[in-house]
Amino acid sequence: MSDRLYIKVDENNVFIDHPHFESNLRQLYPNHNFNKGCPKGWVEFERSEPPKLGVYEKFNENIGGNIAIAFSHNGLEYSFIDGKYKDVWHVVNMTEEEKKNKIAKYKEDWAKENPGVTSWTFSEEKCLFEPPKPYPDSSEDKLRVLYIWDESSLSWVLRSSVDE
Question: Where are the domains of the chain?
Fold first, then answer.
């Protein structure tokens, strides 16, 4: 049995509350034949994962209302599309002020966690510091390895390795 989602709707197909699993509805409607559709007053619901945000993107805080109580942010609405309700995520770019604050906070935190490391350069595009030499590629090794940055030699130093 698949565990599809359904959402309760009023007489105008406006959703009420949040989606419910079919397995829960089967308990409420034990005599209903779900192979022929959902019970009266319910519509199929299609869940979608939140999008991966870009470095300087955020969820639109002006959209979501009571839906957002299930998440740590707004930016989600339930939309009636092609006969079913679907998650629709809304993402916006940060303002220049928000971007500036994010960069400042990142740089401040990085400096606290990496005192004395001055050789790395900040990439505004990625909002992170990059080392002067890339992290060693150990993909061909049959070992799990950990390198740490040594500022005095400006190189990666093997910290540990463990056979797989």
Answer: 5-92, 96-163
